[in-house]
Design a protein that fits this description.
Elements (H helix, E strand, L loop, with lengths): L2 H20 L8 H19 L12 H30 L1 H64 L1
Helix pairs in contact: 1-2, 1-3, 2-3, 2-4, 3-4
């Protein structure tokens, strides 16, 4: 994703947090929004740290891309700090710590689920390879048997 798209996602998450706090939304209901905001900030930080890349069709220079990345990262970090201040001001520091623990647990669960799905996909691919190899061997053996049968039948005639 490009930095501007990630920044838009961060702004949307911040808006949801701001609206949730204003509406008196429960703390647990904002964990996903906080996770989205922090995820966007993490991705922007990663993009800003990477060497900028340009392609042949891009009209932007590497410097422009790097500046956009840095500016988007700085704005997203500012939104994250504002969200934290809003949240702590409304619910207190203990609630903030609780939500941070929930966000961490949600991220762990997502990563665990992703790992399970990757293992299952690898197992299915291995199973398909095994079936293909066995099928190929069976076809080769049948071909050999057919060839031997044809040779033997021609010798008897």
């Amino acid at each position: 994703m490009d930095p501007l798209t990630l920044l838009a996602a961060a702004q949307a998450a911040y808006g949801a947090i701001q609206a949730g706090i204003a509406a008196g939304k429960e703390i647990q209901g904002m964990a996903a929004d906080l996770s989205d905001l922090w995820g966007s900030v993490a991705k922007l930080t990663h993009i800003a740290a990477d060497k900028p890349s340009t392609n042949v069709f891009s009209k932007k220079s590497a410097e422009q891309i790097a500046m956009e990345s840095y500016a988007a990262k700085a704005e997203a970090q500012d939104l994250a700090m504002k969200a934290k201040n809003l949240f702590v001001g409304r619910f207190g520091l203990a609630a903030w710590d609780q939500v941070q623990k929930e966000v961490i647990e949600i991220r762990k669960e997502i990563e665990r689920q992703k790992h399970i799905e990757e293992r299952e996909a690898a197992a299915r691919a291995e199973e398909i390879r095994e079936v293909a190899v066995v099928g190929f061997i069976v076809l080769v053996l049948l071909g050999i048997m057919l060839l031997v049968g044809i040779i033997l039948s021609e010798g008897k005639v």
